[in-house]
Amino acid sequence: MWQEDPVATHAAHAAPDADRRAMRRAVELAARGLGSTSPNPVVGCVITDAAGTIVGEGWHQRAGGPHAEVHALRAAGDAARGATAYVTLEPCRHTGRTGPCARALTDAGIARVVYAVPDPNPQAGGGAATLREAGVATEEGLLREEAEAGNAAWLTSVRLGRPYVRWKYAATLDGRVAAVDGTSRWISSAESRADVHRLRAEADAVVVGSGTLRADDPHLAVRGVEGAVQPLRVVLDTHATVRPGARVLDGAAPTLIAVSEDADTRHLDGVEVARLPYEKGAEGGDGDRSGKGGLAVGALLDELHRRGVRSVLLEGGPTLAGAFVATGAVDQVVGYLAPVLLGAGPAALADAGIATLTDALRLRITDTARSGTDLRITAVPTAASVPTAPKEH
């Protein structure tokens, strides 16, 4: 809910409808940075004059580059004096690779700042207080839900200390991801497969298990998305079964092979490897053929977060998806449902540790759309679309 700061002193501000239009434009601008700003957030900024006319726009385009506010201020020039700035995230107050945006706004003569989401990062947050101390009116919370949804990956990483996980799958209308003989190409339409490359381009890492590696020899790099930054290709491979010549090792994008602590990786000379603890007694999260365990999902997410990964696209098979769901580490589901019936074959989700209906992971559908001949459904866990509890240390 939009709430005006009680100590804001700027009285002559735009009508609420104009505020919403400007902030919605800022949210749209922020989305342009998806896939290129990590480990930083995506942020959009719109500056309007006293008449409500947009005089400057900007978005955070890449990590280490100018922030959204700076781009918008440069576009506005002298028109920024006495203007209103709409920002999707509270302007920062710290000096990192760039200067503090709160100071840039005050130096430019901005009279009022409306921001959607308070910055939860203790290092950068508090910019609103800095603005108020300089006599700038501040208002918090306008279109907060929309702005949080667009910045879910970064917010999750700050609040929970792990990457945001989007699970993507393609299935028939009766929920099968492959036929009995293992064939699965192609269940989904060409349009859906192209859309998956968009999802890859927005992610810092794409994750599959060794079962998918053996069955499909996937490439996992982004194709057909102009200017895309290639994500880290991650394979959970407990026993290091990947062999030289696998497409995921072709150099088109960076690759990380996650293996158990005692795996023999001598044949992977020159390949980056992460050694993770093994969870005995659990369903093999990477498709472990022994069925007696798998790599710890939590340890994988900790390792990826340490490497600067803020968003993960989970593309593995049913077993890997089940391990992530069982860990409580799926933040969004994107399902492509094809108008196809098989009647048998593996289901989209394997054992996720759910024994009774009352324990089912219930989802809230946030979007439905046609994708070629398919239906694309996007949903999030009903408990919270964006986590708000900080990680315990």
Structural account:
With 393 residues, this protein is α/β, with parallel strands linked by helices. Helices cover 24% and strands 24% of the residues. The protein has ten helices and 17 strands. It has helices at residues 16-31, 68-76, 101-107, 127-133, 144-150, 152-160, 190-202, 210-216, 297-306, 318-327; strands at 3-4, 44-48, 54-59, 84-89, 112-117, 137-140, 164-172, 205-209, 232-236, 255-260, 272-276, 278-280, 293-295, 311-314, 332-338, 363-371, 374-381. The strands form three sheets. It has a nine-stranded mixed sheet, with helices on both faces. A hairpin with a 2-residue loop joins strand 16 (363-371) and strand 17 (374-381). The radius of gyration is 23 Å and the shape is elongated.
Task: Kindly summarize this structure in a few lines.
24% of the residues lie in helices and 24% in strands. It is of the alpha/beta class. The longest helix has 16 residues, at 16-31.
Query: Can you list the strand order of the major beta sheet?
Result: 11-10-9-8-14-7-15-17-16
Helix content: 10-25%
Instruction: Provide mean pLDDT, rounded.
Output: 88
Low-pLDDT parts are: 1-15, 384-393
Structural class: alpha/beta
Strand content: 15-25%
How many beta strands in the DSSP annotation? 17
Order of helices and strands: EHEEHEHEHEHHEHEHEEEEEHEHEEE
Spatial separation of the terminal alpha carbons: 31 Å
* SS element count, helices: 10
- What is the 3D form? elongated
Query: Biggest sheet, open or closed, and with what strands and sense?
Result: 9 strands, mixed
Rg calc:
23 Å
